[in-house]
Amino acid sequence: MDSIRIIGGKRLSGEIHISGAKNSALTLLPCALLTEQKLTLGNLPRLADVDSFGHLLNELGVSTKVSGARKGDGPKRRMTLEARDIASTTAPYDMVRKMRASILVLGPMLARMGEATVSLPGGCAIGDRPIDLHLKALEAMGATIEIAAGFVKASAPGGRIAGGDYSFPVVSVGATENAVMAAVLAKGTSQLFNAAREPEIVDLCNLLVAMGAKIDGIGSSHLTIHGVEALGGADYDVMPDRIEAGSYACAAGITGGSVELVGAKADDMLAITNALAAAGLMIEMTGRGIKVTADRPLKPLAISTAPYPGFPTDMQAQFMAMLCVAEGQSFLEETIFENRYMHVPELRRMGAEIEVHGRSAIVKGGAKLTGAKVMATDLRASMSLILAGLAAEGETEVMRVYHLDRGYERLEDKLGAVGATIERIGGG
Predict the structure, then answer these.
(1) Is pLDDT larger for residue 427 or for residue 223?
(2) Could you tell me if 259 and 359 lie in one domain?
(3) Does 81 share its domain with 199?
(4) Domain boundary among 192, 216, 237
(5) 146 shares a domain with 124
């Protein structure tokens, strides 16, 4: 099993090219199920989750062809998908268990084929993420839902869902995505109230419109989707990854460095850049992206995660690592997932002073971080350990980096190019 070794204490300086967004790519890929025509997605990140989703689509009868660079910052990776014939409407457990995002095939298969059977996703390390809101939204649109033997079976009377209105009791990104993809081919009009507003959902809606969908209210919490008879193909680029950009911004902060995030889109990450600025980092919008410079001691922060446009839960662990070296005491509150502090014991092994009280954490800044062998527990927790290692004295080895490979493309190459001493060690 691979690990990543870091010799800390190097100030990062240079530029990092931001990849296509993982969370967007995993939402755009299932759109191929909605049409017989070809869908080409550009700026597609080379990640384990993207590859796994491609394999799932292959199982369902979608052909995939990949082109473009696999390494370096040359031609961007592109995937052309074609679902002329759906070979199966069942997403099996052995595929779905690898990635919770697999549930996103439910809506588009139901919309196109009138039925879909998807294994219930397994548990998640960062907390319980039930799919009840996905199912209730589909039921509101006229679908019949059955759960038996670990599978969800959705069907549309007459082979096509009618459409309908649903108000989400709490904001849910995945449920909004599934509902939108189901509604675009419905007989009638659907309205989604209290819908998630994340940039990745805007990206999804923009792709669907490019394919011929009719969606009003894009970017708002009230989406109106007018069902159409059929969708066509499209050629569409995945948005830049705002979480990757934020993570590397924290790398600049924790090392006292200066990094230009080439391709980062400032409008999508205002909560992140505002927090970085509040911590004392200088944020500069350039013609190519965002430049982040730490030219003074970091200040403590009070952060509470929230649905977009609030501070993203996917950035909580990275900010926690950075705040370990700030001057003063920081307060973090995790409101989205109930078990997203699993990186704390590992950060403590490196000298961090962090107290956890339920969903709140107090970070006592000014810690002198020292290298250690640490264990990654989930994707964003992994990045927090990488960040701590960049600032720590001595050698840090981060184990279980397969978590990192799910969401960070060529991480060691990108950090190495801006001055980090970092390498991947093969586990044999």
Answers:
(1) 223
(2) yes
(3) yes
(4) 237
(5) yes
The range of the structural domain enclosing residue 105 comes to 25-237
Q: How far is CA 374 from its chain centroid? A: 23
Which tokens belong to 6?
């870091």
pLDDT at 256: 98
- Pair (148, 255) in one structural domain: no
Please say if 324 is a catalytic residue.
no
Q: Which residues contact 72 (CB under 8 A, 6 or more apart)?
A: none
Distance separating alpha carbons of residues 288 and 342, to the nearest angstrom: 35
Q: State both tokens at 288.
A: 């190519």
Q: How many CB atoms lie within 10 A of CB 192?
A: 26
* Total-model pTM: 0.95
**Same structural domain, 298 and 178:** no
Question: How many CA within 13 A on the CB side of residue 31?
Answer: 34
124, 205, 250, 324: which one is catalytic?
124
Domain boundary, last residue among 218, 237, 256: 237
pLDDT tens across 150-172, in order?
Answer: 899 999 999 999 999 999 999 99
**Sign of CA pseudo-dihedral 269, 274, 280, 284:** positive
Of 340, 335, 297, which is closest to residue 320 (Cα–Cα)?
340
Long-range contacts of 130-137 (CB under 8 A, 24+ apart): 131/103, 131/174, 131/175, 133/168, 133/169, 133/170, 133/172, 133/175, 134/103, 134/106, 134/107, 134/172, 134/174, 134/175, 134/178, 134/179, 136/166, 137/166, 137/168, 137/175, 137/178, 137/179, 137/182, 137/192
**What's the structural domain count of the chain?**
2
